[in-house]
Write a structure and sequence with these properties.
Elements (H helix, E strand, L loop, with lengths): L1 E5 L5 E5 L8 E5 L11 H5 L9 H13 L4 E3 L1 H4 L5 H17 L2 E5 L6 H6 L7 H7 L8 H6 L5 E3 L5 E4 L4 H8 L3 H4 L9 H7 L10 H4 L16 H23 L4 H11 L10 H4 L1 H8 L5 E5 L6 H15 L5 E6 L10 H15 L4 H11 L2 H4 L3 H14 L6 E6 L8 H11 L6 E7 L3 H8 L4 E5 L4 H23 L3 H14 L4 H12 L6 H5 L6 H13 L4 H13 L6 H7 L9 H10 L4 E4 L2 E4 L2 H8 L3 H4 L4 H19 L29 H12 L3 H6 L9 H19 L3 H16 L6 H15 L1 H6 L7 H4 L6 H5 L21 E5 L6 E6 L5 E6 L3 E6 L5 E6 L6 E5 L2 E6 L2 E6 L5 E4 L12 E2 L5 E2 L5 E3 L8 E7 L2 E6 L4 E5 L3
Helix pairs in contact: 17-20, 18-20, 23-24, 23-25, 28-33, 33-34, 33-36, 34-37, 36-38, 37-38
Bound molecules: adenosine-5'-triphosphate.
Length: 969
């Protein structure tokens, strides 16, 4: 950006600044006169232009800038070299940002005179207002963004007298432009829908047709390179395209909307009570964090149930009020029992989603990567890397105002917590504009890491016992008063409940909440009798509740439900639960089912149709203290029951074409889930039955030995339902998980030693899912087309499912006898793959392509874990024990094996030995010492690169595919 400064001799000089080093500056907004009247860049560089009418504006802007204590200012007529096309294009794309980031914006209204102000001596309304209303400034296209982008906009008359600013004149401006007050007060533009924003530009004109669209790019938070000559229609079409791409990108960032999570949490926890969190706002540590620019991280810690989550809900509400639309508040609530929101990646996605929703211009940092990699970049197992890079860029954005980032329950981040802690520690001191709050239980691991973080303030709930105690007391009073009203308690009952709760709560909100939950289900006449049965302390209370469940008529059923819910890998729905717990099968009635969950109400809660634990501590209790009661024959028994039920219900229900798609090429992305979804009960079973099977220990496996033998339940399921299961996995978007499951099943059955027909079937089925992953994943019915037609003649699955092969194919392709050496084909690169490398443990395969990306694959599941945009062609790649090294002509980029975070280093500590294979002229693969290791079938020969580890061979080819071969086969 080029800025102006007034020199001592009264002239103006121009200085160019890089984006990272722009000093505070003022900016002029005006309407252009004839081109010949304006002072140009050329004029200024040649010391000319003083005699032009436009010089006065520049002079005014310089004067006003100095008066406001600034040194630099910007005027569009002379700060852009319009002869330089690249610069001009860059300026058009940056203009909104330049206005938004200006410390001051002066609007010079050449057609509004303030002489009428003097003459009138404060009449009401002032006479200049009618000129103001008619000013040309409100009719031009570009001035729309000049009005809405800057924080402050001051209006001056042609005599250079201040008339007011966009806040003091908001009513007049609203009448002229119909732009709502909130916009003028700085509300994020994204709060206003596209049509409304388009309406603001109605009746505005631009000199060039295309500018009508170009002048709106900042208003919609998109980037549009100008192509003058394309016409207004072309420019608008591109603008609309960009807007829809932006919307898609924002949509794809989000895996959950933290605003909905917050509402849900508050709702399921019984509603937020202000009087129980308000104490924190006056707390000395909170105040220090809030007011001191050096204190950027507030760490709230406390034992389970002390009210941390609700405290954060309250703080979020208060911060949102206090920043009054000018800053950003972004937050995330981790919940261990919900796999959508218990990973480090989900946290960053959630935070990022709320940031870009409030300030769409930030999406540019996302688009840099997203446009290249698409939605998968948020979903790859290592999306973490991409997200941390984006986040780092976002936090450095110069336009970011006061920003608050809040993460609740770090202890409930199940996947990659160390990475998240490391990220928070590093980034919480990056910018004084960005402040963080994190909360967690008193866990030593987390404490150790956060203790090392600088610029933090610690707020321990245990060390603020008095405040927490008063807050709990208020909570008790509110809860009891609500119950007393609802259940019509007499005074004695109400006072007794109040007293009992106050005496036994031990400053733990959750204990109070749990007791109240129980009392709400207790008849008024029994309340006093029952009161003493709630012992103080969470564990004692859970124990007591377990005893109460033990006395129910449905005690056994409730325990079975609790046992299954405690062992499943994600929260399940009521329907999925019925599939897993045999005895529930007899309860056909939805109402009765809900009643059973209600009976477990001290531990479980139903949200819509999904069952959750009331609290993580409830699950912990069942798995530890109550294990004997809930798992009387051990956890393995419950795992086995889940497997048995899953197989039974899948065998009964799975069939060909569950969604009535008919066409084998029906793409999975076009499929709409039917209202009455035949997979609703099966989804969990389909995805996780193998995992439960693999939880069985040797003793348990021995006692169920028949299951894994020829003719056993698993064998029969594979024989009769395997392809239908693959179709279902595809409908559940879980084919990669299916591959991992089949690998697990294969090693489980192979580990049992003897080779049986069943072992062979599992091997064959595993090969088939690996080989046809791509086809089945994108079109579920390909399980019966490609997978049957092109698998080897002696494939067991092919033989078992002959009856399912497409009837319309009369001449079957000639296939080989058995599976060839190619295990799987990895698809994703869009150009030739010129380098491949295996990790030493053979779990990862990296491939580099002329599409300028390096992809890292899970060599077992074939899933693409990460796409690195390297932007250049590499010379070579190799893994060593420390990580992946990418060799470029300008040094090495190393990728750490565990973190997969690229860092640039100048040289590699030692040049690793090249261990790959090379292609000999006759098409055979030879090692470096010229010893032949493998002949490849002709079809695989047009290859470009190869790597080998153990008995696996990876080959990258011209089509962009990567093949993995089993060399032992
Ligand atoms: N300000 C409040 N308003 C309403 N309810 C509250 C408030 N504070 C705490 N509670 C009640 O106390 C319960 C426990 O609070 P919360 O979940 O915030 O504790 P926590 O410290 O985050 O617990 P954990 O670390 O175990 O997750 C909530 O379920 C809610 O019922």
């Amino acid at each position: 950006m080029r800025l102006l400064r007034r020199c001592d001799n009264g002239d103006f000089s121009l200085t160019q600044f890089s984006d990272e080093a722009i000093p505070p500056y003022a900016i002029l907004s005006h309407t252009w006169g004839e081109d010949t009247e304006e002072v140009t860049f050329e004029d200024l560089t040649n010391g000319a232009g003083r005699d032009k009418p436009g010089y006065e504006k520049i002079w005014f802007c310089g004067e006003q800038t100095a008066q406001d204590g600034l040194e630099w200012f910007w005027v569009d007529t002379c700060c852009i070299d319009k002869a330089n096309k690249a610069e001009f294009s860059h300026a058009i794309r940056s203009m909104f940002r330049w206005y938004r980031n200006a410390a001051r914006c002066y609007v010079y209204l050449s057609d509004v005179s303030s002489s009428s102000l003097e003459a009138s001596g404060e009449p009401s309304p002032p006479l200049w207002e009618s000129e103001f209303r008619k000013s040309r400034w409100f009719t031009r296209g570009w001035t729309l963004q000049e009005l809405v982008a800057p924080r402050t906009v001051e209006f001056f008359s042609c005599e250079q007298r201040k008339l007011g600013d966009k806040i003091s004149l908001k009513s007049q401006i609203y009448k002229i432009t119909s732009i709502p007050h909130a916009v003028l007060e700085g509300a994020p533009l994204s709060q206003f829908n596209i049509n409304e924003r388009l309406r603001w530009k109605e009746h505005r004109e631009t000199k060039r047709d295309e500018d009508e669209a170009y002048s709106l790019q900042g208003i919609f938070g998109v980037d549009l390179a100008p192509i003058y000559g394309e016409g207004a229609a072309g420019a608008f079409r591109r603008l609309m395209d960009e807007i829809s791409k932006l919307e898609r990108c924002v949509q794809d960032i989000h895996s959950t909307d933290p605003r909905d999570d917050k509402k849900r949490i508050e709702h399921t926890k019984g509603g937020l009570i202000k009087a129980s969190y308000h104490w924190v706002l006056d707390n000395i540590h909170f105040q220090q964090w809030y007011n001191d620019p050096q204190s950027q991280l507030l760490w709230i810690k406390g034992d389970p149930g002390k009210g941390k989550t609700m405290l954060l809900c309250g703080i979020i509400d208060e911060l949102q009020k206090s920043i009054a639309k000018t800053g950003l508040v972004s937050y995330f609530f981790c919940q261990a029992t919900d796999s959508r929101i218990n990973t480090a990646t989900a946290v960053l996605r959630g935070l990022l989603f709320l940031l870009v929703s409030q300030q769409p211009s930030l999406v540019l940092y996302v688009r840099k990567k997203y446009d290249h990699a698409g939605k998968t970049m948020f979903e790859d197992a290592n999306a973490w890397v991409a997200l941390t890079e984006i986040f780092t860029d976002v936090l450095r954005d110069p336009s970011l105002n006061a920003t608050y980032l809040i993460i609740d329950a770090l202890d409930e981040c199940v996947t990659d917590l160390p990475k998240l802690l490391d990220f928070v520690a590093k980034h919480s001191s990056v910018s004084s504009r960005v402040k963080w709050i994190v909360s967690c239980r008193n866990w030593p691991d987390i404490e150790e890491q956060l203790e090392r973080t600088g610029h933090k303030v610690r707020l321990s709930l245990e060390l603020n016992a008095e405040s927490v105690s008063t807050a709990v007391r208020t909570f008790i009073e509110q809860k009891v008063s609500q119950m007393a009203q609802q259940k019509k308690y007499d005074e004695r009952t109400r006072d007794s409940v109040l007293e009992y709760l106050a005496l036994n709560a031990n400053d733990t909100f959750f204990w109070v909440a749990l007791v109240c939950r129980n009392l709400e289900m207790t008849a008024k006449r029994n309340v006093l009798k029952k009161l003493n049965s709630f012992p103080p302390g969470l564990d004692s209370l859970y124990k007591r509740m377990m005893q109460q469940i033990g006395k129910l008529d449905d005690a056994e059923l409730c325990k079975q439900v609790l046992a299954s819910i405690a062992l499943v890998y994600r929260p399940i729905t009521l329907k999925e639960l019925v599939a897993l717990v045999e005895q529930l099968g007899e309860i056909a009635n939805d109402q009765e089912l809900r009643e059973i969950i209600g009976l477990c109400g001290s531990f479980l809660i139903l949200r819509e149709d999904t069952i959750y634990f009331v609290h993580q501590s409830a699950k912990d209790f069942l798995l530890a203290q109550a294990a004997e009661e809930v798992f009387p024959s051990g956890r393995e028994d419950v795992h086995h029951a889940i497997v048995a039920r899953s197989l039974e219900i899948m065998s009964r229900t799975l069939q060909r074409d569950m969604y009535g798609l008919k066409a084998p090429g029906y793409p999975v992305n076009d499929i709409k889930q039917p209202d009455s979804d035949p997979l609703a009960t099966l989804r969990y079973s389909c995805i996780y039955w193998v995992d439960h099977l693999c939880e069985l220990n040797a003793v348990s496996l021995a006692s169920h030995a028949g299951d894994l033998q020829d003719g056993g339940v698993v064998d029969m399921f594979m024989r009769e339902k395997y392809l239908y299961w693959l179709e279902a996995l595809s409908l559940c978007k879980s084919v990669p998980k299916g591959i991992v499951s089949m690998a697990k099943l294969r090693s489980l059955v192979q580990g049992r030693g003897n080779t049986t027909l069943f072992t062979k079937l599992v091997y064959d089925a595993h090969r088939l899912i690996m080989y046809y992953k791509g086809a089945i994943e994108s079109c579920p019915l390909q399980a019966y087309a490609s997978a049957l037609l092109f698998s080897p003649i002696r494939s067991l699955v092919r033989g078992l499912f002959q009856h399912e092969k497409p009837k319309w194919i009369t001449i079957m392709p000639a296939m080989g006898e058995g599976w060839n050496t190619c295990l799987q084909t990895l698809e994703g690169h869009s150009s030739l793959v010129y380098s491949v490398a295996f990790s030493h443990d053979s779990t990862r395969l990296a491939s580099a392509s002329y599409d300028r990306t390096v992809k890292i694959w899970d060599a077992n599941s074939g899933e693409c874990l990460q796409t690195l945009y390297v932007g250049r062609v590499l010379m070579h790649m190799s893994f060593d024990t420390t990580g992946l090294y990418l060799y470029t002509s300008c040094g090495t980029i190393s990728i750490s094996a565990t973190q997969l975070v690229p860092t640039t280093i100048a040289t590699h500590p030692q040049t690793p030995e090249y261990k790959g294979l090379a292609l000999s002229s006759d098409g055979a693969w030879i090692t470096r010492d010229s010893k032949k290791v493998l002949w490849l079938p002709l079809e695989y020969r047009p290859s470009c690169s190869a790597a080998v580890v153990g008995k696996m061979l990876g080959i990258g080819v011209r089509t962009g595919r990567v093949w993995i071969f089993d060399m032992s086969a």
